[in-house]
Amino acid sequence: MNKRRLVLPMLALAVMIGFSSSVINAVVSVYPTGTTIYQPDKTWNGYTLLDAADGDGVTLIDMNGNILRRWPELAGMGPFRMYPGGYVMGGNVSRTPYQESVALIEYDWDGDEVWRFDRIDMVAAPTSNDEDEAEADESAPAVWASRQHHDWQREGNPVGYYSPELTPNATSGNTLILGHKNLTNLDVSDKRLEDDYIYEVSWDGEILWEWLASDHIDEMGFSQDARNAIYRSVGFNDARQSADWLHVNSANYLGPNKWYDAGDERFHPEHIMISSRTANIIAIIARDGSIVWRMGPDYTENESLAELGQIIGQHNPHIIPQGLPGAGNLLVFDNGGHGGYGNANPARPDGTNAMTRDSSRVLEINPLTFEVVWEYSIGPGTESFQFYSWYVSNAQRLPNGNTMINEGMNGRIFELTEEKELVWEFVSPFFSDDATPSHRVYRAYRLPYEWVPQLDAPRERAVIPPALGEFRIPAEP
């Protein structure tokens, strides 16, 4: 790879890490935003949809980083997705401080509401749009809410991003929703839980299926030390008046796959893959509610997992959809940071957040053997923190075999070839107005031009970064 093309993103990334993370001190305070690298002949060209930290809603950009449209009405809990015909869908209003949306809504390109769901629970209305100012107020007026958080899927495409063989249903079909439910379960803890509740609704809003995480704690592979840590030390959030004990951040259908076609019933297309960020667990739920496949929480429990290494705080694990290179393999953003219960140590005497790693990696894994098929990381013996997002983030396999990665904490989205050549990079210019501004991106998705027929396909212009040693900000005349 051209060294000049590698250096700029490394500097920008180091700067962004310093700017966005309290873990690493800031190096410099000024860096480029927008598209910083673009090789049109090596990328899979299309639009990119991302959530923006400035509060002005989900945003659609082209490969050159031009803003094509923003939806301020969609500023709830992500993710946000687009469907063929220019339809866009996601949470409308954040119910702070609970990290959930009041309603899950779909709009057409003209801004007309196509579908809405907000009827799972009556809850106190949001007290503020500012996460720092919001607090739980059970006396606030009650509103109907979906309580959706962190994920949802529409029938027709199992993981919600483009595959030439699978088309999401824009105007029909069931919707899988990851939500919250408050309860007490003494098998888990004596504290009130903000439990993870997954449910499926019909187009008409009928509840078709539901699953509650706390009912299945015995199937999650926790050691006795981990169970003790969960019971005694699970973090209770005073603002939310509950304990988010698992923090499931992903739920998607498995979809058609070669493992099921070969007779492995665990991989039935209608089964659901979930990710617990706090417990370092990736699991498959059967439609009878049982957990039929699992990675973690202990990645030393067999030789194959030990060779893979501990996954920590992961986001968006999913089976690569049929029709894409690597179909059937598991793709996951392994964040690092801290996570896991048990294994009490001097740094974590209560056994919470017992595992740490100050670097990230993206893994493509054979889900039967746990063999790593493809990996992107900054290797041992180098400054591995240069690729590090300890929260949010996702990865998407593209039709040409490239992988788009959202290093979300640092607001950086980039595309790599199979040989890991960096061929596109975008740094989010959308900053929050917090005392310490953030431009984090929860998830980002690439979609084909033809999914938005209302727009003319944009001009694709290469972006070649300058040599850093010659890059200057001019002084005032």
Automatic annotation (TrEMBL):
UniProt KW keywords: Signal
Domain of life per record: Bacteria
Signal sequence bounds: 1-26
Transmembrane segments annotated in the record for this chain: none
SUPFAM superfamilies: Quinoprotein alcohol dehydrogenase-like
Tagged with keyword Cell cycle: no
Gene Ontology MF terms: aryl sulfotransferase activity
Keyword Transferase: no
Protein name: Thioredoxin
Annotated source species: SAR86 cluster bacterium
